[in-house]
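Usage

Read records sequentially. Each one opens with the input sequence:
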Amino acid sequence: MDKTKVAVYAADPLTHAGISRLLRSTPGLELVTGEAAVDATVTVVVLEEVGEGQAAARAVLRQVARQVSSPVVLITPHEGKFDTDGLAGLPLGAVVYREAATETRLLAAVREAGRATSAPAVETVSAAPAHPIRSSPNKPPSPFSEREKAVLRLLADGLDTAAVAKRLMFSERTVKYIVHALTLRLKLRNRSHAVAYALRSGAI
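and closes with the structure output:
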């Protein structure tokens, strides 16, 4: 049985290395790099910046489309529903939100895109958080974004920065920035205080 050839585009070298290791170790998949990337069956593209959102997604996809014709699995930190308007004609096979991304979900998206003979209709791959929060009409909105909650849940489970980064497919620098930013915004002392605050507020 032929292997699915997968190329990876990620600006952050640690993120690129982590996804590459996952692909290399998965039966049925073959990581292709360099000039061989043009022959990829599926291309995984990672967006690093949250603020650029849809504009960044379209720009990256257009750039990749000029180099490859394979379906793209887009890993994006953009929160909320991913708006696929304006992406018609671009080789978008699936969207995976980093807050909900796991190795299993990423591999499922890659395999699904690889089964298509041409770029399929857009399919968004997402999921509710591992520990869903029950909301009520009178409950105030959470002070944490979904991205922050994903990091805090793993910290609460005892994972260190490196392990959190690997699980969420972030760079360690990104994890540190997320924790630093939320502690400053909420005037918390450190990451332990942030985890305790999130637990007491019911956010995680």
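Summary fields computed downstream for this record:
- The chain has seven helices and six strands.
- Helices lie at 13-24, 53-65, 103-115, 146-156, 161-168, 172-185, 191-201.
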